Amino acid sequence: EPDTVADAARALAGASRVAVLSGAGISTESGIPDFRGPNGLWTRDPSSERLSSLEAYRSDPDVRLRSWQARLTHPVWTALPNDGHRALVALERAGRLAAILTQNIDGLHQKAGSDPERVVELHGSMFDTVCLGCADRRPMSAALERVRAGEADPPCLDCGGILKSATISFGQALDLAVLLAAKEVAQSCEVMLVVGSSLGVQPAAGLVGLAARAGAAVVICNAGQTPYDHLATAIVREPLGEVLPALVRA
Ligand code: NAD
User: Fold this and answer.
1) Among residues 126, 179, 213, 236, which one has the fewest Cβ atoms lying within 10 Å of its Cβ?
2) Is 131 known as a binding-site position?
């Protein structure tokens, strides 16, 4: 389907307020596996989805031990942005970007050079910890140092509560101010450009419907199908590291 990038480019042409909704698929080419793609973490081991719930983390010390061990060697610490992230920086520099609404927690949009003020982290960030008791927030690096020094499940230094990465787990509400900011962008954009998301997680996926109802064109760049494909004026299935540079050039 050689035309699909051209169709997507036509939908974007002339738009000065493009909202990007990004998901794990934009970072797979940086070596961070997604959840539901063909090589996704949950596709390979469906039982791991349970371990991503807030309830499991809070109630099961074993889940926390395993989470801290996984954080020690997590690919996000060393991952580098790819051509897909960089194309979105070019879109911003061309004056076309309203904001990047990202479900990713890997910080790669900011690392690529996107203005941090235009990156809305719907699901938080791996680079901070938050206390489930007193909400104290600190750099993840400090907690990881404590784990390396022998604390298997380091407690909050202020209140002794349970520390977790400052990311949204299943069963955990999004930060309301962050969600409202994202909704405002969705309702006022001219184009909603979805990149690398299966659109299977609410309320993030609902931002696409919100944008469409407010009159925005929807363009979906994603290898797999999504429940919102019927709303799209253009769909591109090729790898994002190639598609996004071509789209922004066009
Ligand atoms: P997902 O795993 O549900 O879907 C990713 C989609 O991207 C899939 O449909 C897949 O076909 C597509 N895809 C993968 N690589 C691609 C490529 N190179 N080119 C084009 N398409 C590609 O991801 P999601 O929708 O973001 O939802 C998963 C949840 O997990 C999110 O809430 C997110 O917070 C979290 N998560 C984040 C990261 C990260 O920060 N990088 C990684 C894994 C999961």
Assistant:
1) 213
2) yes
Burial of 56 (0-12, 13-18, 19+ CB in 10 A): middle
Delineate the domains of the chain, giving CATH numbers in brackets: 1-32+81-123+174-250 (3.40.50.1220), 39-78+124-167 (3.30.1600.10)
Q: Which of 21, 22, 35 to mutate to test the pocket of ligand 1 (most atoms within 8 A of CB)?
A: 35
Q: 60-79, pLDDT tens digit by residue?
A: 999 999 999 999 999 999 99
Q: Nearest to residue 76, comparing CAs of 163, 148, 165?
A: 165
Helices (H), the chain: 4-12, 41-44, 54-59, 61-72, 83-93, 108-112, 140-148, 176-188, 206-213, 240-249
Residue 212 carries which side chain, given as an amino acid letter? Answer: A
The string of pLDDT tens digits covering residues 162-207 is 999 999 998 899 999 999 999 999 999 999 999 999 999 999 999 9
Give the pLDDT of residue 3: 65
